[in-house]
Structures are given as structure tokens and as C-alpha cells.
Amino acid sequence: MSIAVATAPPEQLPAGAIQILKEGLLSRVGRPCPDHGGEGACVATKARGGCLIYWCEKGSHHFWIR
């Protein structure tokens, strides 16, 4: 697990996503982006499906991992 220092603004979240608290535990979770290899910060959860949504700042896109 890695520490994230930024989260995506709410207007950038995919439809149906629930933004996490910037000070919350999940905001510290990061994963490598499958497309760009950089670290993606956890920014939201999916209302359906129960997965975490990450923001890839390098590619300006969201990705999720189940």
C-alpha cells in the first residue's frame, strides 16, 4: 500500500461513484495504473460492484480494480 496526496475533484468522478473522504483511510490507498504504470490514488467507490476507483493523474482517467 502507498500513500496518496491528492484526490480527483468530484466533477471528474464517473457516474454512480461515491467520493471518499480526503482525510479518510481509503485516500491513502494507491495502485499502479494498468495503462500508464504511474501510481493511481483512490478517489471513490462504486455504488454497485463494491470496488475502489482510482485516479491516474498521468493519463487523466479513472480505473478500478476488483
List the uncertain runs.
none
- The total strand number stands at 5
Sheet/helix structural class: mainly beta
Mean pLDDT: 82
End-to-end separation: 16 Å
Radius of gyration: 10 Å
Number of helices: 0
Give a short account of the largest sheet. Answer: 5 strands, antiparallel
3D structure, described in words:
- By secondary structure, the chain is mainly beta.
- It has strands at residues 17-19, 30-32, 39-46, 52-56, 61-65.
- The two termini are 16 Å apart.
- The model has no long low-confidence stretch (mean pLDDT 82).
What topology does this entry show?
Elements: E1 17-19, E2 30-32, E3 39-46, E4 52-56, E5 61-65
Which key features would you list for this structure?
five-stranded antiparallel beta sheet; 66 residues; mainly beta; globular
Briefly, what is this?
The protein has 66 residues and is mainly beta.
